[in-house]
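Try it yourself: sequence plus coenzyme A, in.
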Amino acid sequence: MEYAAGGQARVAADAGRVGRELERPPLRAVRGWCPQQVGQTVGVDDLLIRPFEEADRVALVELWEHCSLTRPWNDPHRDIDRKLALGDRLLLVAVRSADLVGSVMAGYDGHRGWVNYLAVDPGQRRRGVATALIDAAVERLGELGCPKVNLQIRRANADAVRFYASLGFVEDDVISMGKRLVDDTVEPS
Ligand SMILES: CC(C)(COP(=O)(O)OP(=O)(O)OC[C@H]1O[C@@H](n2cnc3c(N)ncnc32)[C@H](O)[C@@H]1OP(=O)(O)O)[C@@H](O)C(=O)NCCC(=O)NCCS
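Structure, out:
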């Protein structure tokens, strides 16, 4: 990714992006995180996208709770710890004026990329924050060789459906199934 002087993000030729149209117009809120330059984040339009840092933890869990993404059977702190243990730096946060305003947790399993914990502070919505987060995550997944990004949306979450549809995501003809391996309601021994 390159950054032009005018503050618009440009994507270097192809860059392995998936799930999006490369011709899509520039973002309103521009990414500040370049995977090759972790630690040299670039803030544009006062919005910064960067990997999670430990100092973000309290604000991040508060954001998830505020956005109704937490569930009693899912310990968010354990989810953060599990993600950090993988070391892929794909838990991203959006920061504006030193406030944590958004997040996304992405991952690549060798077959599909996955996106979870996409959240934007209610006071910051419809300003392109989620778009910038998904762009950054998708770009990184593309660099890892990921051919397709999947995600799950709770059936009642029409806002999220409209959001992903606006980015070119389409509904797959699948049944989503799951099996719990760790009970987060039980303290680890
Ligand atoms: C879904 C969510 C992440 C969108 O964040 P956002 O920063 O407001 O999204 P953006 O500003 O990047 O939106 C981009 C486009 O998506 C569409 N969109 C986003 N939110 C929408 C909504 N509530 N209704 C209709 N379209 C919407 C619009 O086309 C929008 O472009 P526009 O503002 O120019 O019309 C945010 O509403 C949120 O945090 N919701 C609660 C948590 C959640 O449900 N997460 C997803 C779990 S699967």
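One thing you can check immediately is this: The chain is about 25% helix and 20% strand.
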